[in-house]
UniProtKB/TrEMBL annotation:
Keywords: Coiled coil. One of its GO terms (cellular component) is centrosome. Residues 12-60 form a coiled coil. This is Sjogren syndrome nuclear autoantigen 1. One of its GO terms (biological process) is axon extension. It comes from the Eukaryota. InterPro entries: SSNA1_fam.
Length: 114
């Protein structure tokens, strides 16, 4: 029986060693899981922060784009009005020159024909 007892003790020792190895591997896996869960939580937090920041930037951008559109419209309207003023000034100057010429002719002394 002593051979059987020795074999049984040997099997028992191997079984204990295998159980210890499995427990060790499980602890290592559990450590890795914990690290990844911490990383996941950090990333989710970062995503929330960035999503909020993106929302604020999009809102600000929308306001600025609307303001720029208003500037563009005001500039376009002002340029059109200024062009009309220039055209009117040019027309007025032409009319004034013509009238000045007509008045000059009317006020010149008449020549005597010989």
């Amino acid at each position: 029986m002593s051979q059987q007892a020795a074999a049984l003790q040997n099997y028992n020792n191997e079984l204990v060693k295998c159980m210890e190895d499995l427990c060790s591997k499980r602890e290592e896996l559990n450590r890795q899981i914990t690290l990844e869960e911490v990383e996941k939580d950090r990333l989710q937090h970062d995503i929330r922060v960035l999503t909020e920041k993106l929302s604020r930037v999009n809102e600000s951008l929308a306001h600025r784009l609307a303001a720029r559109a208003n500037f563009d419209q005001t500039i376009t309207e002002t340029q059109a009005a200024y062009t009309k003023i220039l055209e009117s000034s040019h027309s007025l100057l032409s009319v004034l020159k013509q009238e000045t010429g007509n008045l000059s002719k009317a006020t010149e002394p008449r020549r005597k024909d010989h």
